[in-house]
Amino acid sequence: MVDVGVEIEKTNELIEIVGKESLEAEREGAIAAEQEAETNKLSDAAKAEKAACDAELSEAIPAMERATEAVNCLEVKAIQELKALGSPPAQCVEVAKAVLILMKGEKKNFAWPNSQKMMGNPKKFLEDVQTFDGDNIDEWKLAMLAPLLAEDWFTFEIMKGKSVAAAFLCSWIVNIVNYNSIFKKVKPLKDAAQAAQDMAELKQGELAVVIEKVRLINEKVAAL
Fold first, then answer.
1. Whole-angstrom distance, CA of residue 169 vs CA of residue 125
2. Residue 86 — φ and ψ, nearest 5°?
3. Cα 203 to Cα 126: distance, rounded to the nearest angstrom
4. What share of the chain has pLDDT > 70, as a percent?
5. What 8-state DSSP symbol labels residue 104?
6. Rounded to an integer, what distance in angstroms lies between the CA atom of residue 86 and that of residue 1?
7. Residue 138: in which H helix or E strand, if any?
8. Average of per-residue pLDDT across 167-178
9. What CATH architecture does domain 4-223 belong to?
10. Over the stretch 178-197, which tens digit does the pLDDT of each residue have?
């Protein structure tokens, strides 16, 4: 025979448990909703920062593409011909000087024999140019290159009449320096965009934990 009093007591205990679990679910649900709103806000901000960064960086892409194109047009044979010149045109010496500054960090010895030494292995020299890190150029190098880049003859069109290799190196230098100046302006934006993205992903992970917690509580309440 069922003891009504015992059953009533059990039912009341169950009601109390369900009530507590429901309140917990409601509380955690409110936390989840608040956190979701914050996460969405952070995610939208991260997307906006990335879009701004991409827009700025898009200015640098053509410069890097032109620099890459100049390098791709540069052939080992042309470098060999430039290196073999006993008395090169003065402008060719100056272009080589720019390369010495940029790639070798040279500050004093810009004599032609030193440039010939730099191009000693034309294939290796070309590979070094191709793999040069345009993102990171020391400021002192840029300062030393500025007077050379300001010369009216420091262009592909003028230099190609003196040396094909020097002309392509000239074009490469102009464009890699231009790319670097834009990249350095964009880098803080890029770092900020990455930090915002990392934070948004962290909050997404935290939100997933809270949502799962709410799901388990609601599941428990439903079972009760």
1. 11
2. -80, -40
3. 47
4. 90
5. I
6. 117
7. none
8. 94
9. Up-down Bundle (1.20)
10. 888 888 877 666 666 677 77
d(CA 104, CA 137): 11
pTM: 0.62
d(CA 119, CA 19): 82
In whole angstroms, give the CA distance from residue 140 to residue 163. Answer: 28
Residues 6 or more apart from 206 whose CB is under 8 A from it? 35, 39
Nearest to 159 by CA among 90, 68, 100: 90
| Residue whose entry in the numeric block shows the structure tokens 């007591």 | 9
Dist. CA 156–CA 116, nearest whole Å: 21
Give the pLDDT band of residue 1 (cuts 50, 70, 90): low
60-70 residue pLDDT tens: 778 778 888 88
CA 199 to chain centre: 17
